[in-house]
């Protein structure tokens, strides 16, 4: 079946008409998708900013040792509260001492301070017992 040139032009113009309608439709679809993605991104960012802050790195006490150990300093050394029970003090002493024992490569000085901290927390100290 052969078409006359005028008929071929009419067929081609109808194809172009359909293509002309498809282009704005696809552009609108892309714009709607971008708007939804932007909305989701804004909501995710707001949720991210609203979350409670979490400590990433545990801060260490930057001060040195005082001439006579206080209960506060002893609690900082053992990593417990000042009003901890005797069982908690003994448990914390054991945990810290295992990590810093001189036989396992730890310092004699730190081991003596850990022992002094335990004594201060348990009320067994008579003043400055540290040989250092």
UniProtKB/TrEMBL annotation:
Superkingdom assignment: Eukaryota
Gene Ontology BP, a term: protein import into mitochondrial matrix
Single Gene Ontology MF annotation: ATPase activator activity
Its job: Component of the PAM complex, a complex required for the translocation of transit peptide-containing proteins from the inner membrane into the mitochondrial matrix in an ATP-dependent manner.
Record keyword Transcription regulation present: no
UniProt organism field: Vitis vinifera
UniProt key word Mitochondrion: yes
Membrane topology: Single-pass membrane protein
Family, as annotated: Belongs to the TIM14 family.
CDD domains per record: DnaJ
Subunit details: Probable component of the PAM complex at least composed of a mitochondrial HSP70 protein, TIMM44 and TIMM14. The complex interacts with the TIMM23 component of the TIM17:23 complex.
A GO cellular component entry from the record: PAM complex, Tim23 associated import motor
Location of the protein in the cell: Mitochondrion inner membrane
Keywords linked to the UniProt accession: Membrane, Mitochondrion, Mitochondrion inner membrane, Transmembrane, Transmembrane helix
Name listed for the protein in its UniProt record: J domain-containing protein
Domain J: 73-132
InterPro entries in alphabetical order: DnaJ_domain, J_dom_sf
């Amino acid at each position: 079946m052969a078409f006359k040139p005028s008929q071929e032009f009419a067929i081609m113009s109808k194809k172009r008409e359909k293509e002309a309608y498809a282009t704005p439709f696809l552009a609108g679809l892309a714009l709607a998708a971008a708007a939804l993605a932007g909305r989701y991104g804004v909501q995710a960012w707001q949720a991210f900013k609203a979350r409670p802050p979490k400590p990433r790195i545990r801060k260490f006490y930057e001060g040195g040792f005082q001439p006579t150990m206080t209960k506060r300093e002893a609690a900082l050394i053992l990593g417990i509260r000042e009003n901890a029970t005797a069982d908690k003090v003994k448990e914390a002493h054991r945990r810290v001492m295992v990590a810093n024992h001189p036989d396992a490569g730890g310092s004699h000085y730190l081991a003596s301070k850990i022992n002094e901290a335990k004594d201060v927390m348990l009320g067994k100290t008579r003043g400055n017992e540290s040989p250092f």
